[in-house]
Design goal:
The complex is a heterodimer.
Chain A: H1 20-27, E1 32-36, E2 42-43, E3 58-62, E4 66-75, E5 86-93, E6 98-103, E7 116-124, E8 127-134
Antiparallel strand pairs in A: 1-2, 1-3, 4-5, 4-7, 5-6, 7-8
Chain B: E1 4-11, H1 22-36, E2 46-50, H2 57-64, E3 71-75, H3 82-95, E4 100-108, H4 128-131, H5 138-153, H6 157-172, H7 186-191, E5 194-196, E6 200-201, E7 210-219, E8 230-237, H8 258-271, E9 280-283, H9 289-297, H10 306-311, H11 328-331, H12 338-349, E10 361-366, E11 369-374
Parallel strand pairs in B: 2-3, 2-4, 9-10
Antiparallel strand pairs in B: 1-7, 1-8, 4-7, 5-6, 8-11, 10-11
Helix pairs in contact in B: 1-2
The chains are: A mainly beta, B alpha/beta.
Chain lengths: 146, 376
Amino acid sequence: MSDAPPESRHETRRVAPDDAFFWAAAADGRLVIQRCADCKTLRHPPAPMCGACGSLEWDTQESSGRGRIVSWISSLHPNRPDDEPRIVILVQLEEGTRFVSNLVDPPHGGPYDDLPVVVEFRDDRGANTPFFRTAGVDTQSLEVDA
Amino acid sequence: MTNTIVAGIGATEFSKQSGRSEMRLAAEASRAAILDAGLSPGDIDGMVTFTVDGNDEQELMRNLGAGPVTWWSRTPGGGTGACAAMQQAVAAVESGVANAVLVYRAFNERSGYRYGQPHAAGGPPPLDWYRNFGVDTPAKMYALWFRRYMHAFGATNEDFGRYTVSARRYAATNPKAWFHDRPITLDDHQASRWIVEPVLRLYDCCQESDGGVALVVTRADRTTDVDAPVAIRAVADARHPDASITANYYYDDLARYPEAAQCAQLLFDRSGLTPADIDVAEIYENFSPLVFLVLEAYGFCGPGEAAGFIADGNLDIDGALPTNTHGGLLGEAYIHGINSIQEGVRQVRGTAVNQGADVEHCLVSSLNSGLVLGRV
């Protein structure tokens, strides 16, 4: 084992077979959520089988890209992988699934709990990637169960 | 109530530089546990560990001269499986597929590699959904869960620090603890650097340790063969289908810990005990906030009440629930929680350095799994 820290942020991105549809949509600037074709249950992260009904058939639902921050941290590491601080956020999307991402252009130094956010695609290592920024009044009434 | 006992415990020293191989640590700890049980390696016919262990089971069997071994098992989720591994041993003994099962864990997670550093690429694909956005260390994985607890109940990092001070106080009087003789104050805690702001400071994090621990589980009717048997009153493990590969971000209410609550319910149902019957608790804490969620999940205090429960001294040796009496994973060592099972055995034997008074029942919690130890 080496003492050198792995380059988790700078490594080439891997796209697993079950995730490919998501990144193909993201390349077009669309945030999609995997949906069971039979019982219509949404799921994320992507998975080959529906945990609700066992179906292998699925399609996708386009997300509005709007949601609310359920939890967040400031991700800073003294070594290379996070040499710039990032605000990591757990977003509850309007559609009900949750998504881990980063808050871009934070409006202040925090806290960010419960803030409404909206998706914004940016390049990350060659992949058009869904990040989020704080949003206006449109999502103020959004219910979050967490 | 199970028909099994912990017959023996064994461990290496806990260090940052063991100077020997992980297999050697596993062999040393395992042989010590077998001899402590009054058994010989040939008596061991089952072997169990949990994931994130680099020691091959068969290689350890060969080192020990154990067996023939007829039962193998490895439980998922790393440290969430410390007590789950014990459940494998109990199930094997109760079903009759094994008579004496060795449960072990050994590694050089400080000198061989740095477990708390960003994890290398690869691993199960779902990790990418977190790692791509910077969630690349255990501290970050868990902090993103714990932050909701802070927000929901107004818990502060200073509240977490009061747990750390307690753990380090116990470690200070435990000669086997890495932080032996090095207690800290709340000011020390608050002055330690942020690891994951605004949740975890350095002193909220468990250690990276070198070391090994092993236990031997056998039938309760073999108590005459062993020197200091401890009964396994109940053992349980609970995972929900929305579980994720990191800390779970998909509970309806992230400020609670439903899997630990379900594990607690199973333990109390199976043992016929209640939280009031627990004399001492050894609670897995890779990070200090986990103690808060687990205390509440087990019903030792209500939701959001752990900060006050801890501040009131309930975790002290003369408190209502002496907790992590070895110093915990923060103070003694991070052997993925199996050292906390060992401490539970010592508490029931009455041989712990920080011994609770008149211990009849000790709870050991390791995230989603847990067990209750008691007098034979």
